[in-house]
Amino acid sequence: MLQVRNIEKYYGNRNNITKALDRVSFDVADGEFIAIMGASGSGKTTLLNCISTIDTISAGDILLDGESIAELPSGELARFRREKLGFVFQDFNLLDTLTLEENIGLALALNHAAPMEVQKQVRQTAASLGIVDVLGKFPYQVSGGQKQRAACARAMVAGQSLLLADEPTGALDSTASKNLLEIMTQMNQDMGATILMVTHDAYSASYAGRVLFLKDGRLFNELLRGNRSRSVFYHEILDVLALLGGDISDVI
Description:
The protein has 252 residues and is an alpha/beta fold.
């Protein structure tokens, strides 16, 4: 689904150049749940920003469903994000003046889908995440967990190819973090969502099936979970972070 090919990213001018990404390459298969980890300044958020087209690469190529992101004209970027990418945010980013149903269906409406089709897809996705009974309510009328589910439903209701999450649990307490990670796992395992999540947190990363580690803008290592328990995988992630010299104090 996603092919990242020898991408580089530079910031600054000729007198002060910072190389944020250095020939990074990897593939993401359809239906994978991948976490990206690294210390502050390792390039993990820059990588996600380049994949999401928020930022542009300096060299290399990124292909999603065979389409080169690097070659997209600026006028097509908004359409590309709307149709191909879903985003999971720390604070939900739901619009308070819209019901949950309207929030979830917003991307479909922007794509000029027929009203009956919008309603059908919204209800199907909401049913999968267990929030059909609150679709008519506004965000301030529902629980945090229901807001999370609505935000996740919005991220994939239009059939987006890839869900991107940048530190999605960073502003949440431990209970809310666990709830969100379990929702994302459900989306991945039961609904076939392909997820790419940037996180500094080993506990969050242990929910993924594969973890990529960045150091100084380069891929340093990767771990595959396989059939191992999440607890075993969590401790293996901590071992790699120790080699990285990463933010171990933040994740233990």
